Structures
1.
Amino acid sequence: MDFSDSPEEATFRSDARSWLDANATLRDGSEKAQDHFMARDADEVARARDWQARKAEAGWAGLTWPRAFGGRDATPIEQVIWNQEEGRYAVPPNAFLIGIGLVGPTVMMHGTEAQKAAVLPRALTGEDIWCQLFSEPAAGSDLAGIRTRARRDGDDWVISGQKVWTSGAHYSSHGILLARTDPQVPKHKGLTMFLVDMSDPAIETRPIRQISGGASFNEVFIDDLRVPDSARLGGESEGWKVALTTLMNERFSISVGRASGGARAEELIALATRVERNGRPAIEDGEVRSRIADFVARQRGLEFTSYRVMTSLSRGEAPGEESSIGKLLLGKLRQEMGAFGMELAGTAAGISVKAGDDTARWRNEYLTAPGNRIAGGSDEIQRTIIGERILGLPPDIRVDKSAPFSEL
Amino acid sequence: MDFSDSPEEATFRSDARSWLDANATLRDGSEKAQDHFMARDADEVARARDWQARKAEAGWAGLTWPRAFGGRDATPIEQVIWNQEEGRYAVPPNAFLIGIGLVGPTVMMHGTEAQKAAVLPRALTGEDIWCQLFSEPAAGSDLAGIRTRARRDGDDWVISGQKVWTSGAHYSSHGILLARTDPQVPKHKGLTMFLVDMSDPAIETRPIRQISGGASFNEVFIDDLRVPDSARLGGESEGWKVALTTLMNERFSISVGRASGGARAEELIALATRVERNGRPAIEDGEVRSRIADFVARQRGLEFTSYRVMTSLSRGEAPGEESSIGKLLLGKLRQEMGAFGMELAGTAAGISVKAGDDTARWRNEYLTAPGNRIAGGSDEIQRTIIGERILGLPPDIRVDKSAPFSEL
Amino acid sequence: MNFGFSEEQDTIRETLARMLGDHATLKSAHNRLDGADGFDTATWSVLADGGWLGLAISEAEGGAGMGAVELAILAEEIGRSLAAVPYLPALCMAVPALQSAGTQDQRTSLLPGIAKGRTIIATALAEGGGLAPDTVSAKVVQDRLSGQKAPVTFGAEATHALVAATDEEGTPRLYLADLSGSGVTIGALDPIDRTRPAARIDFDNAPVELLPGSDPAAIRRLLDGAAVLAAFEQIGLAERALALTTDYAGERHAFGRAIGGFQAVKHRLADMFAKIELARSNAFFGAWALASGDSRLPEAAAVARLTALDAVQFATEESIQLHGGIGFTWAADPHLFLRRGWQLKAELGTAAIWRERLLGHLATPLRAAS
Amino acid sequence: MNFGFSEEQDTIRETLARMLGDHATLKSAHNRLDGADGFDTATWSVLADGGWLGLAISEAEGGAGMGAVELAILAEEIGRSLAAVPYLPALCMAVPALQSAGTQDQRTSLLPGIAKGRTIIATALAEGGGLAPDTVSAKVVQDRLSGQKAPVTFGAEATHALVAATDEEGTPRLYLADLSGSGVTIGALDPIDRTRPAARIDFDNAPVELLPGSDPAAIRRLLDGAAVLAAFEQIGLAERALALTTDYAGERHAFGRAIGGFQAVKHRLADMFAKIELARSNAFFGAWALASGDSRLPEAAAVARLTALDAVQFATEESIQLHGGIGFTWAADPHLFLRRGWQLKAELGTAAIWRERLLGHLATPLRAAS
């Protein structure tokens, strides 16, 4: 066991750092908290595009893409190293994660030459920003249940329906859209994938406000959007297969991505040192100590789990079984820490009584965490995945696999 | 809201107390801990029989049975009051609970006149002791999955198979036995109920040792037991319906029965006051206080829940929805309290270091509790019952309801 | 044995449920979250007109002369409807305080107005963290109060406040302050539940009147009674959260089935149910102890509050979870209940406080820091 | 980044797994529970013959010269097999103590015998509740030890004991006692896990030898290392409990299906898996910190132990639960794992102790009682 880079990894890291040093400035802690990949406004989008163009020019964009498509043919661990290094600098959010991490590889595998030429270079340089139009109000955990319809009309397709939970849709130029083209066959079989232009007036995007007050997602309404057949990605009724490529790359992007934000358990120590519980410093209360120790132990475990994932990547292997637990355990941990932080504030749990107290921070943590337990595969879906794919338990009984979608 | 008896209830209580005063002595705390309904040895069985005979003679046995069968036509709340009052006296365990509470009502509803005459009087006086031969190794939560076969042979039936979890089988004179008589129909349809003589040499009883070291249950092996058709209780292939009568009465017996034993949460306060944690009296540790307060609150909740059940009975209503939660919550509470009691003993959790310390008590509590979470309907079955019967959620998908048992 | 409600009480519940269901809708709660007035004066008027605000005030003083069990029923229905009304501070705390510790004059001058809905008395016991009588730094000298109280629920909407402050001997007592009087500055706080507006009140030599019967023991009794009644409000809201999640699980389909048919969902809902019923059993005992003046009230109040806090948090968090994506959107209902649950935690103190109150009775109090 | 095992280490694991699987069967564990000898001398001999007992002893002192990571692998496989051998006290505590705090003479005279399996050193740190160096009342005066130690795992089977006792200045130190010497009385205790026999040892002026390098800090380091290695043993046993429950859930049918297809069962097993993998990640970091001498060892040891304790308790309790009726019978396997889990908790202290060790590093230590 060894935490150091291999010689090849060390070289890559040093190259990355040299370029970053010359092109960006290190964070100094004064930066506003920001999401790692969501831009908040037009200005941030513009700055993100500019930074992406510079990376692309220097060969630091699309790291894991093949050189033939302008990438660097980098290994997954090199992507991790880049993410670590770039994370040390004050750079704009990476609004291109979906384009480069998900759409690019899907187009490379399933696209026509014309599609590759149209999509890949502009995704790499950040000229185009992509979003993923998969989930629907009635198709969340059960993605294959989507109802957005695409009907043939001459050489065109006409698409209508509603998408939801679309990150970044409001500033994206393009979207990869899964639609049902044949409702008379079983649900997984009648789907087709399309590449669409988000600026088309047939597409309307509305932000979704979350319980935390933020709005990272959108609803997208599609009303008779007309696209040529050349916008179809992959074969007709082959959409599920194409979507699986996208989803596999999504999982990979997450496993090499920057660790999720959120509070550190140690911050609760600081809070408990400042506040009182039952007339004494809260940090002297055995229950406070017990809860915090438990949080620290679980958070460390998640951190070290990511080291195990990186070890697999470093060895050129796929992330192992351990990679599945992070998603399951993180949301609940954040939710419990948020609740505990709010409670430590005393009677006034949840009400900010003094300006500058910690209530707002922990309240936001608490109200953000439920999203972690749901988005990207709920806790319940994760447990099913672990149970079936890792432990090999019998699958849930599926009543919907063979019936025509129209009869479900 | 009022905890006092109604005038009728008060009269009943006073009558019961007068008779008990004249026929038994009050507990003085020196009695050995004993199970409320399991006799431990032949001597205890003999004393239990004697006590039952005296109760029967005076009209205090089979309280809720109709007078026509020697009962008192008592209301459920009167049964509760009797149980409360009898519980104050040093009397032998009630080994007749199954006979009077379960078998009697089932025979009254489904038996022939000859069966009623043969079974009821002797069950009432304690001459016969009954056990319930339902569960099998492959039929626990899924009771209808039983495999014990009863085959017609002329006018007789020949029964072979294995039963398990049979309380009191080793001292019972008779058993009510569910067997499969037709494997060619769906599982619930091919069952028939029989009344059997436990002294038949074709029946062998072996105690099952539990992880706590105790043995309250038995395995019962039945090897070509021959019974006449007059031993059949209810129609051929009507066994499931007959069994449901028994099970309904079992639930009722439990809801009016004496509260389950087990440790009181307050005992943990006493323990925590005696032992140290991290160099201080454990009772001063916030986590210890927090855990104990939680245990007290949950245990009180279960106790007061039983008051709600009694209120329904007192009003002549069936126990309401609240009665279903006790079974679900009790086992886990006992398991947690047992574990915590062991941990309070410090490093030596689970090892009795000093004679007379509390380790053995809490270890026994901890090792007994898993049985509470499983026997009589596991936690998981209870949750399904609450979800489906109380909350009205859709049933689990059943693949076994219509296929012939032989093809499952 | 009678550990349930009478037919008259069941009728009261039905009437209230209908009335609150009509007036205090979830839609109106959403509007308040989005900036509408945090106090639902319309519902408060309806309650006043129906005579509900004087439920536990004697007939001589303008009320209906009922008791704690009826107050508990009202509390549960308020919880179920999430009505944005100052029920808990005004009716479950201020009224009993006046009744048990006030003068005849104070009662006569205030109780009729409360029953009519004209007088609203907020309760100012907290000072950031901790609860009176254990944590009080506001002081009264010569009938003048100085100090800061926060959070005070409905502090900006109330006409009066019942304030915990120390008297000239340093003993915590309760005082009545006219909030329109001099020396009172009220600032809005940002509560997690905007249907329960909260304020900070600064008193600077504000004239106040002592409730002569109030001493630390009386304040504790007051909190015990309030905790029991709040437990009913908590149970009402948790049960509504369970009900709407059960409905959703029966309607929402995934993988070709209603999601309530999946054990992961079904068993979670069963766990919610079990926690709520456990809390209800404790709350019943608390209501009985409160109504009958039983000496076990402190213990009963603590266990009622502890199990209610647990039931509410579990039910509301898992209500969001089982709603899936829709559950964590602002426009959906589940977070309304989560917010009210936290607000009720804030108003009377977290489990940490009530565990100590329980153990203080069963075992020894925690030793003070040396 | 290399946070896993090398190929050589994987080979060691496979060899050990095969060997222990052949010799330390669950059937033999059942026999011990039913009264057979609690020490599996046959497996101990096989380990000695294979050179495994000297794994982390230098080649010069009769061992194989490997390190902490290899010890961790052995620990995990011991846990998985439930082998009834004094691995933890003798190899993970006594050997490192001799190596770090013993004299050259002590090492030369004892380590080769340990590697050969002839010398077995028990570790006597506990005195009922609490762990050395924080709780020590045994005393050494002029090289003579008096006091009582309990529980001492394999105390009755060991040739020597490493005993925590205070020196003449009152400082906790470690001493080596020959258990066949004078002044030593050994009594059997009743452990929850009879495959892990425990004893009480009374020392009455028993001659002992100081490990000169031992001081309170050294004792703490020793415990940290042992906690990391024990975490691997805990993970091994939890994983075996998960595996046998997963197998059972795949075979056992109810309602016409393997019960592992029901989400109530499937999701519980997934939770077991997640807790075990979380503990494993912490244990990996602990092993690295132990092997590399990293200063974060105390923190790493504490988090490894805390998550391992949690994973073991959850996995073993739910293993019994998911086995249904058969699960709480004596003859079934699940309780073997539950018992070993508690035994490992007893040997190195409960979560309460390790939470304080963790917070002592991250925050302030808990103030002593005044």
Note: Chain C has three domains: 7-116, 121-214, 217-369.
2.
Amino acid sequence: MKLGVKIMPREVILDTQGRAVEASMKSNGFNTLSECRVGKYIELTLSTEDSAAAKTEVEKMLKEGGLYNPLIENFEIQLT
Amino acid sequence: MKLGVKIMPREVILDTQGRAVEASMKSNGFNTLSECRVGKYIELTLSTEDSAAAKTEVEKMLKEGGLYNPLIENFEIQLT
Amino acid sequence: MILDEQLKSKLKTYRLSEEEYELMKSLLGRDPKPVEWPLFSALWSEHCSYKSSKVHLRKFSYRNERTPDMDGENAGVVDLGYGEKIAFKMESHNHPSFIEPVQGSATGVGGILRDIFTMGARPIMSANYLCFGEVNAPQMKYLMNGVAKGISSYGNCVGVPTVTGQTNINARYNKNILVNALNVGYFGPDMKMALSKAKGEKNLVVYVGAKTGRDGVHGASMASESFDEDSESKRPNVQIGDPFFEKLLIEACLEVLKKDLVVAMQDMGAAGLTSSSFEMASKGQVGFVIDLKKVPLRDSTMTAEDILLSESQERMLLICEPKNLEKLQNEFKKWSLDAVVLGEVQKDRKVKLMWGVEILTEIDPDLIVEKAPQYKRPYSKWAYPNRVDSLTSPKFEISKLVDSKLQSFKLNQHHWIHNQYDQRVGARTAMACESSVAFARLDHSGRGLSLAVGCRPEVMLMDAEIGALDAVYYPAFQMAIKGAETLAVTDCLNFGNPQKNEIMSEFVASVEAIADAAKKLDAPVISGNVSFYNETLGENIISTPATGLVGLRETVENLVPDSFSNAFENIILVQMNWVESWNYVEQTNNRISKFKQNANLNVPAFIKKCVGLEGWLKQKDKKISAIKAVGLGGIGATCLKMSQNNIGFDLSYDLSLEDEANMFKDVFYSFIVVTGEKTDEMLKLLKSYFSDLGVDVKKIGETKNEEIIFSQNTKIDFKKFQKQFSKDLEAAGL
Amino acid sequence: MSLKVGVARFLGTNCDEDVTKWVTSKSHKADYLWFENQFNVSDYDMVIVPGGFSHGDYLRCGALAAQTPVMKSIKEFASKGKPILGICNGFQILCEAGLLPGALLRNQGLKFKDEWALLKVNQTKTAFSKDVEKNQIIKLPIAHGEGNYYAEATTLKKLQENEQIWLTYENNPNGSLLNIAGITNEQKNICGLMPHPERALFEWMGSQDGMYFL
Ligand SMILES: Nc1ncnc2c1ncn2[C@@H]1O[C@H](COP(=O)(O)OP(=O)(O)O)[C@@H](O)[C@H]1O
Ligand SMILES: [Mg+2]
């Protein structure tokens, strides 16, 4: 089965990419935009159909396998 | 309101980053992993509460504002 | 003295000692106010105040006509003549890089760049000095990869080429890596130097650059603390660097200086706004009124204390005359940067911090900057623990040694690191990481500015004094044989806990040795940085006084490369036996080498003489195709390093090397020169050039096509060697 | 003949001065074209989009720069058949702006790569081929993290048929399809390449092959 992990910069952490994209979009006339943050999205296909097991495995990859950097990122697992 | 845009490399594109993550996870013993693809996630806060209008605006950013490149990427808008 | 619990915990939070608390009280004449605690904490930290090192750093006071006294400015300056000047400095970012290697090393590069362009110089060359633990130590590959990535992503994006560096690997850095970054900035004849001295009553204090966030709050005091097991589990507010903003800041700052819109300028480094404002006021002997509420914020919930201590990157503080404000703001706006007035300069020598209309404190900046505590930490006189009168050769087999060195990457050049660095942006680079010395072409005069870093941890381990002399002599020697005269030195003194006698003894021996070597070469130590407390769980790193040297060559044309380029040429050795040791061999046995020293030899004279060699040979119409200083591991290891492009060597020629093991003995200092000219003529010329210096000149072998021959008995498979040698650390996951 | 050359300058461009030095050393005149402004296309004979990290290289390399006002003018300039050269990030910008086909992806090794590259010149009928012969091998430095050329099979076929594949790597450093290091548009007035000719002009730089371009 397939799982998605959304990895975003922590709120207190400066998001350099979001800052640049935001400025650029605003100067191109997208005036309703008030904030932009850019993170990563990782799609993982696992050879199991048990969604609880899959989720546990992905959590382990995140926390022990270094899939995300806890110092600067937060993650959210999405079942697709 | 806040919207999310998931931007993934198109299937035909060799996702070298995804492959590298996959290889690294596998070598760390995550054997149930069969495939991994790495894309971007963009969170946009708009100064409107009308979700249809917000979606149209984000679509415009994607298609006319260069937020994604159709040659190499696919996108999906998520309401959060 | 009995302290109540509350005070004790406060002292702990702010990392101040009881004595320092007493000093604070007596300076202020009262108990400190809440907002004053973080001020003293930050500015009295080891990192900002140099409290354990200041008394010794005065030993670097020697200057010559090329090196104006910069009175504590951000970087040292060298006058190159023809209206050209450079500013250069080196700085450590060890602790942040250990916590988050990508951001830690990136912000290290950003910080040193700001120290340079805050003076008005355009950064033109970067270098890095790295010490890692063993590749297989926990986290080490992650750290190595991250550091290389951080340095390259930041340096490449700002458009400053990284042209040289050094990478050391030793178990003593397993728990505390070193990341030192160096930058050189250029002043052309039409460029103005900016100072950090604030002046002019009613002039405006202007904040420019990125907005302030919670980055690295308490960062400066963190850098002065040893690691404990906790630091990995804490989620500190890592400082994030944005090279894109830095690039904008460079252009905007140089532009406003060019337009003469600035009175003084200072980057916000460690302890952010606190240190920059207090230092500018203290240096200029003036006062400031600053409203912290006016600071542009990323996070509106930040308190005055957060704002004072934030280490958000890519920010500067500058002073401008009111009439120039609008022009200045327009220039920053053009580069999409904030420029906000925080307050003004006042005659009364007080820094008055406001929060809107509320006065938070009013304090004489000298109390915090000039009157910071200074310690005379106990140390012992250097006693040369490993010096011997006669040196015995260890037993080993050459082919096994070479094999094990290849396995442990000791012989590998660190291509995997410097191939990630943009070495040529700026179009000034004449020689970069493929060589032991880098050269950039100076825009105005067309001369070559050389840059090299130094300090070999193995030699430091053997003897702190010799190691520190070597940290200056070796890179100066490497430059000299490429035809460049050393002009000035910067340093980054990475040491353990200064409260331990043995560490402080090594520190003092190092400072004195560097000062001595620099003076003898007439190359003043004009800037530097001290990083103490490189100690984790009671284990200290090897004392590592890294150095950076700049030199000058008349032109960038006809630079001679490091490696062999043609087969069947003479390999000639020019050697002075000042120090002999077995570091390279002993390292594989995990033993510290003994050494023998011939104190009668004049190393600085030899180095100075080498500078003219190239020109002299040219005069005599003699060509050379490669030249390289002999490093640790003697002629054996050095010839292996020079073997590239399918050219190897045959050293079986020199029968005087009865014991072939001697090929791997370290000899300070010698160089190998390769030439297609007639042997006898070359030897004669070289001997006459170096006569009276006690230097040996002899032919030791010839270059060969795809062969490596040490002796009749010892040959190394060239193909296999090449494969191993040029191999990236990819196999190890790098 | 002295040309009037416009050198595009975005936030984060960092080879602008290098390109200007190159242009003026050939006795041409150079002006910066600031990204926020449009310009009069008849004022210039040639436009160069230099390398660097325009807008921080955020989102995708060249993507944010491609959306700026100056690109509107550059597109108009292109439509007049006038010569445009994109170097490194400039090449990425031209692709993102749709002036050249394809896209530049992350290097296959995922790392930034700085090295000398040997290149084959496959096409000499471009606006930026000077005294160079077809199939000549030249040496230029590369320095990029995203130089891995990608285009769909049909596009690649068209590139081949129209002889738009300008430069190819002798040893592919980044995974580029068909070893592509540089391409042109169909009319051959717009050229883009990843290597840096402006860093190879004198012997002391390590190669002088940059002279084949201007
Ligand atoms: N971290 C680094 N950054 C840049 N260049 C490096 C780095 N590490 C090593 N190098 C390059 O590799 C060369 C070889 O390193 P070194 O072992 O010091 O040998 P030598 O100085 O004798 O040539 C250096 O001169 C330098 O140019
Ligand atoms: Mg070296």
Note: The radius of gyration of chain D is 15 Å.
